């Protein structure tokens, strides 16, 4: 029998310390509701759950981004709704002015309202904004985005606009096709031409009848020149070529709708000023309804403008519907990822309560046994009597 080292007491004390430590950990988990309170609880689980938390917060913010984007689109679409109403009124006035029962004085009064309505279209385009950003002035109309492959670029331009150009790069050839966009328009014929293997190709529409390409290739529109097209009529230039994305500048609203980099959509809103939709000439004057001929031509021009605004509203409506589905999908993804993160990080309260009770009982038992173990060396005293 030895007394310097009470091995029974030492062993019991070690068990008591372990049980108390486990009991403290159980109390911490039960009080926090988390299975992982520090890296030592589960190093791998902590790393995984932190990555999931980043994704969850990103998804939640992406939902808010999409909702803000819908608000922006609704602001623009609401302004275009008013533009539509103005154009409908202008068409009504043009139809009225087309009737020769109106005197010159009557048409002058109609012209005054036409002028004011045209100014209002410009005011709406110039002042409509969301969070201080202009929406309808053409500053965010955007350019075509190509994804590392072939892309078709379409440039629609009114015949009275000069200096519009398209540049392609990293392609072996380019073809420009001239087509009529209005069946009733006359004075030019469709045609096409191509050039071969330039390092950079630029096509520009100028004020004449010729569209030229770098390198000297040209095409001339037959018949009357472009300047004789009615206001609102247009031609379409379609260029099919390989596009180098690195040289493709984007100028549109970029809407971040995902938790990671690059998960965004680009939304461009075209210039909705009176001149751009065709109801104001390059000279700054509104449509002329002073006689039968001009008034009937104005009806056609306003019809084209209404179609232009309708197309823009339809595009915005389609994007809004897309964003609504995006919000639903982001919500589902966030919910599922939260459930996965919870399984890793959250504590099972019932199971941990069971562990706490077990460790508590073991601690009390170890305390009692430690008292008994400390009594054992006292038996040596009997040998001294």
How do the strands and helices of this protein lay out in sequence?
Blueprint: H1 7-32, H2 43-97, H3 104-127, E1 129-130, E2 133-134, E3 150-158, E4 164-169, E5 173-180, E6 191-196, E7 200-205, E8 210-213, E9 218-220, E10 234-242, E11 253-256, E12 264-267, H4 274-277, H5 292-345, H6 349-375
Antiparallel strand pairs: 1-2, 3-10, 4-7, 5-6, 5-10, 7-8, 8-9, 11-12
Helix pairs in contact: 1-6, 2-3, 2-5
Domain Flagellin C-terminal: 299-384
Family: Belongs to the bacterial flagellin family.
InterPro entries: Flagellin, Flagellin_C, Flagellin_C_sub2, Flagellin_N
In short:
49% of the residues lie in helices and 16% in strands.
Describe the largest sheet.
4 strands, antiparallel
Residue fraction in strands: 15-25%
Low-pLDDT stretches: 144-220, 237-249
* Terminal residue distance: 16 Å
N to C succession of SSEs: HHHEEEEEEEEEEEEHHH
Strand arrangement, major sheet:
3-10-5-6
Mean pLDDT: 78
Number of helices: 6
Alpha carbon gyration radius: 38 Å
- Class based on secondary structure composition and strand pairing: alpha+beta
The helix content is 40-55%
Tally of DSSP β-strands: 12
Shape: rod-shaped
Domain Flagellin N-terminal: 3-140
Organism: Desulfitobacterium hafniense (strain DSM 10664 / DCB-2)
Family: Belongs to the bacterial flagellin family.
Protein name: Flagellin
Describe the structure.
Pfam families: Flagellin_C, Flagellin_N. It comes from Desulfitobacterium hafniense (strain DSM 10664 / DCB-2). Residues 3-140 form the Flagellin N-terminal domain. One of its GO terms (molecular function) is structural molecule activity. This protein is α+β, with helices and mostly antiparallel strands and 385 residues long. It has a domain at 143-249. It contains six helices and twelve strands. It has helices spanning 7-32, 43-97, 104-127, 274-277, 292-345, 349-375, and strands spanning 129-130, 133-134, 150-158, 164-169, 173-180, 191-196, 200-205, 210-213, 218-220, 234-242, 253-256, 264-267. A hairpin with a 4-residue loop joins strand 8 (210-213) and strand 9. It is rod-shaped. The two termini are 16 Å apart.
């Amino acid at each position: 029998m030895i007394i310097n080292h009470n091995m029974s007491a030492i062993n019991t004390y070690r068990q008591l310390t372990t049980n108390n430590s486990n009991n403290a950990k159980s109390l911490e988990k039960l009080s926090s509701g988390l299975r992982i309170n520090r890296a030592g609880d589960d190093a791998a689980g902590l790393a995984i759950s932190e990555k999931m938390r980043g994704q969850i917060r990103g998804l939640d913010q992406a939902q808010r981004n999409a909702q803000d984007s819908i608000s922006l689109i609704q602001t623009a679409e609401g302004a275009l709704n008013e533009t539509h109403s103005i154009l409908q009124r202008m068409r009504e006035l043009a139809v009225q002015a087309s009737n020769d029962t109106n005197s010159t004085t009557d048409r002058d009064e109609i012209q005054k309202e036409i002028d004011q309505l045209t100014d209002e279209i410009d005011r709406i385009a110039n002042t409509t904004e969301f969070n201080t950003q202009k929406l309808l002035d053409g500053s965010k109309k955007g350019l075509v985005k190509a994804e590392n492959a072939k892309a078709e670029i379409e440039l629609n331009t009114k015949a009275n606009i000069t200096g519009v150009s398209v540049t392609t790069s990293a392609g072996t050839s380019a073809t420009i096709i001239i087509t009529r966009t209005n069946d009733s328009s006359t004075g030019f014929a469709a045609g096409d031409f191509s050039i071969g293997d330039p390092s950079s190709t630029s096509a520009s529409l100028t004020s004449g009848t010729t569209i030229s390409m770098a390198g000297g290739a040209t095409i001339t529109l037959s018949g009357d020149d472009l300047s004789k097209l009615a206001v609102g009529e247009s031609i379409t230039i379609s260029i099919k070529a390989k596009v180098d994305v690195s040289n493709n500048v984007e100028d549109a609203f970029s809407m971040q709708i995902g938790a990671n980099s690059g998960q965004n959509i680009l939304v461009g809103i075209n210039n909705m000023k009176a001149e751009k939709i065709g109801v104001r000439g390059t000279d700054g004057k509104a449509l002329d309804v002073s006689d039968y001929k001009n008034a009937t031509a104005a009806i056609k021009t306003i019809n084209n403008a209404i179609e232009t605004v309708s197309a823009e509203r339809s595009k915005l409506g389609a994007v809004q519907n897309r964003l609504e589905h995006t919000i639903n999908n982001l919500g589902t993804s966030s919910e599922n990822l939260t459930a996965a993160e919870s399984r890793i990080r959250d504590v099972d309260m019932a199971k941990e309560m069971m562990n706490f009770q077990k460790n508590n009982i073991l601690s009390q038992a170890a305390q009692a046994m430690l008292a008994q173990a400390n009594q054992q060396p006292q038996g040596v005293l009997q040998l001294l009597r």
